[in-house]
Target: Reactive intermediate/imine deaminase
Amino acid sequence: MKKIIQTEKAPAPIGPYNQAILHSGMLYTSGQIAINPVTNELVLDSIEVETTQVMKNLSAVLEAAGMDFSHVIKSSIFISDMENFGKINEVYSTYFDEATAPARETVEVANLPKYVNVEISMIASKS
Model:
């Protein structure tokens, strides 16, 4: 049976989806962009600041499911410009231990919601 995960510490969904779904011990997060959940405004000061907000949003969703970044087994990163990869990776890497970091893909796309520069989704497991 699936359980809907929802927290006010991450941006509310703006369509027919949920922040995350927990099913059979696996957590599937929706993609997060750099929306500040308090102000509901985009945080686009720099790619580093934007990526940090995305990771804060993901942290809040993981926490709502009783997990943290150590439980993440797969990340998907979508970026609008591969030239930003190094800066995004620099911020992203601070949330993981390199020896136990999750599997990941990073894909450049033509556009992202609200024309942001980065969107990240994750799969996590407690087992």
Notes: The two ends are 17 Å apart (CA to CA). The chain has one domain: 2-125. The helical segments are 47-64, 85-92. The beta strands are 2-5, 20-23, 26-29, 72-79, 103-108, 118-125.
